[in-house]
Amino acid sequence: MRIACYNVEWFDRLFDDEGTMLVDDRWSGRRDVTRAAQADALGKVFKKIDADAVMVVEAPDDHGARSGARALESFAKKYGLRTSKAILGFSNTTQQEIALLYDPSKLSAQHDPKGDAEEEAPRFDGVYKLDLDIDNRADSVTFSKPPFELAIETSAGTKLRMIGAHLKSKAPHGAKNRDEVMRYSIANRRKQLAQAVWLRARIAEHLEAGDDLIVLGDLNDGPGLDEFENLFGRSSVEIILGELGDLCLYDPNAARALERKIGSVPTTSRFFLKQENRFLQALLDYIMVSGNLRAKAKAWRIWHPFDDPECWTDLELREALLTASDHFPVTLDIEI
Fold first, then answer.
1. Distance between terminal CA atoms of the chain?
2. What is the pLDDT of residue 325?
3. Residue closest to 281 by CA, chosen among 314, 246, 224, 326
4. How many domains, in total, are found in the chain?
5. At residue 312, what are phi and psi to the nearest 5 degrees?
6. At residue 240, what are phi and psi to the nearest 5 degrees?
7. pLDDT at 206
8. Which of 79, 126, 204, 218 has its CA 20 to 30 A from that of 47?
């Protein structure tokens, strides 16, 4: 079975309120990319990766009259994808949902959130209490995009848990000067680490129960990604992976990045920095598996247009990956 994680930049802008795709020459949410160009590029990428299930980060809006599932299923139908069924978790107000698009002949999926207000790790649409600024007072932490908890059963009868996540960005949006950049960045880092601690608490519950678990998504963080990591000691990726043997998750790309302070590391995203007139690449997207799934996990792949040999030599695929999103798909082939 192939599981994928794919952050699609402003997927929502490609649909009207009825979930019909807007394939025309008007601009999409991507810089200098039309809606038709992005939609067709996404169709080619989804077709090529040929996953049994795709955790779509920044999935279409699911609020009011708009249905994220209807939009994704419309996309799958238009481009002839076998991942014809979509399911979402808790909706949010950012127009960037977390959804699973999957092949119903290969697996069944159910939104199955855990926790309540009285537990150490409450439900992800609730409030988590944690002292963020060491003033001996608990702060209230919430998710703008609550992680998506799923109960999965494959066609072979294997049952497992899956959590899709999109943690808060650390970028100092709205900062007007250097001091505000520093203040916003530190505050955002605190909030993101608190979300990671909350997510880790849920992960620990599943691992202690012996559940097969896959955690995947855009964590907006990675080891050594910015200078604030030294201030707080750890990245949110390290928190989520864990430190205690059997209670750890594993992702080879994260492991490789953690081993290096100097030298190349895998990357899953490519952003244009206008002020610096250059592109920045970063490792932001992960597929982490529990220890009891590690032997069954056969291959991780980042579909990077420049780093993956097949993606580089296939010009049509390379251009589609660059047009479709500022992130690239990550896939895991696993025997389940």
1. 7
2. 98
3. 326
4. 1
5. -70, -45
6. -70, -40
7. 96
8. 218
**Residue 119, token pair as written in the block:** 């537990």
Helices and strands, number each (H, E), in the chain: 9, 16
Closest CA to 268 of 327, 217, 317: 327
- Tell me whether residue 260 is exposed, middle or buried, using C-beta atoms within 10 angstroms of its C-beta: 0 to 12, 13 to 18, 19 or more: exposed
At 274 the pLDDT is: 85
C-alpha 62/C-alpha 68 separation (Å) is 5
Range of the domain at 313: 2-334
Q: Give the residue from 137, 160, 103, 129 showing the smallest Cα distance to 293.
A: 160
pLDDT of the residue at 191: 86
Of 99, 3, 105, give the one whose Cα is nearest residue 51: 3
CATH number of the CATH domain containing 62: 3.60.10.10
Edge-first strand order for the sheet with 97-102 is 85-88, 97-102, 53-59, 2-7, 330-334, 297-302
pLDDT at 231: 47
| Contact residues for 23 (Cβ-Cβ < 8 A; gap 6+) | 14, 35, 36, 39, 40, 78
Query: Considering the entire predicted model, what is its pTM?
Result: 0.92
Question: What is d(CA 293, CA 295) in angstroms, rounded to the nearest whole number?
Answer: 6
Q: How far is residue 59's CA from residue 61's CA, in Å, rounded to a whole number? A: 7
Q: Which of 119, 111, 117 is nearest to 149 (CA)?
A: 111
Long-range Cβ contacts of 61-69 (<8 Å, 24+ apart): 61/12, 61/95, 61/96, 61/97, 62/88, 62/91, 62/97, 62/99, 63/91, 63/92, 63/93, 63/95, 65/17, 66/12, 66/15, 66/17, 66/19, 67/19, 68/97, 68/99, 69/99
